[in-house]
Structures are given as C-alpha cells and as structure tokens.
Write a structure and sequence with these properties.
This protein is mainly alpha-helical and about 160 residues long. The protein has helices at about 25-40, 45-55, 65-85, 95-110, 120-130, 135-150, 155-165. The protein is built from seven helices and no strands. Involved in transcription antitermination. Required for transcription of ribosomal RNA (rRNA) genes. Binds specifically to the boxA antiterminator sequence of the ribosomal RNA (rrn) operons.
Length: about 160
C-alpha cells in the first residue's frame, strides 16, 4: 500500500472551502436581513436586532461588524439616503426595500469603514444584490455605489483610476 501526497481538497489549517462564506460576509448578510425588516416594518431597531440574532448561523458572523453596520445604517440613514439620492433615478424610498437596504449598507461601508477598500465595499454589496436582489438589481447597485464612491472616497477612487492607466 502506497501513500499518496495529500490531495488539494485535504483540510489544511486556515484553508477555506470553495464558496465558504467569511465571518465578515455573514455579518453583512445578517445586517441586510435586519435592515430589510426595519425598512419594511419600521420596527424598533432593538427588536429587529434581537430577532436577527436568533437566526440560525448568526454566531458564525463577525458580530462587531454586524453591530456597526446595522446600528450605523439606522443612525445615519437620512445622511446615507441623501448621498445615495444624488445618484439614483428616483427617491430612495421608491426603491425596492432589498435594493435600498443593500445601497444603505454599501454607502455606510464606503463612508465609515475606511479600512475596507472601496472596491471591496462595492463588490460585497454587489454579491448581496446578486444573492438577495432582483434579476438585474446588482447592475443598479453597482452604478449607484460607483458614483457614490466618488463623493465618499474621492482620493481613493482617483488613485485607483490613475493606477489603471
């Protein structure tokens, strides 16, 4: 009997399975669910938060990032809507609740989570839109957040554009 080298699928410490979600991605998904509920019901954010925390798998998310997004978006919703409103073709209140929630989340990360590169913040919002939004909702989210990034992170966007030349 011969021993063969470990296959590429063998479990290595710290290795992620293809398609495995990071704790940060899970926190965005949980926050999105809470924001969606909040936008639809107008319920107190404390009750929404408690309900979201009861969901299966919540313990696997980055809870600090979840808290920052959920409560940050709610606290800054009017300001974030003002930023987004400059780049939408209609009032943000007229958007589908899921796209509105995704745009709020993306705008929040662009404005307040400067440790996350702007392209990553936008890409994460796109992934949420692809998973939870309408058929082509991710295209709308991409266009709005690309333009909002110019307002919220002008130096970073300009530097990225110069690097591509």
């Amino acid at each position: 009997m011969s021993t063969s080298p470990a296959s590429p699928k063998s479990k290595q410490p710290g290795a992620k399975r293809p398609g495995a979600k990071s704790a940060r991605r899970r926190s965005r998904e949980a926050a999105l669910q809470g924001l969606y509920q909040w936008l639809l019901t107008g319920e107190d954010i404390g009750a929404v938060d408690a309900h979201t925390r009861e969901q299966e798998g919540f313990a696997r998310c980055d809870q600090a990032h979840y808290d920052a997004i959920l409560h940050g978006v709610v606290n800054e919703a009017a300001d974030l809507d003002a930023v987004l409103g400059r780049h939408t073709d209609r009032k943000t209140t007229e958007l589908s609740p899921i796209e509105h929630a995704i745009l709020l989340l993306g705008a929040y990360e662009l404005k307040y989570c400067v440790d996350i590169p702007y392209r990553v913040a936008i890409n994460e919002a796109l992934e949420l839109a692809k998973s939870f939004g309408g058929t082509d909702g991710h295209k709308y989210v991409n266009g709005v957040l690309d333009r909002a990034a110019i307002d919220l992170r002008p130096q970073e966007v300009q530097a990225a554009r110069q690097d591509r030349r």
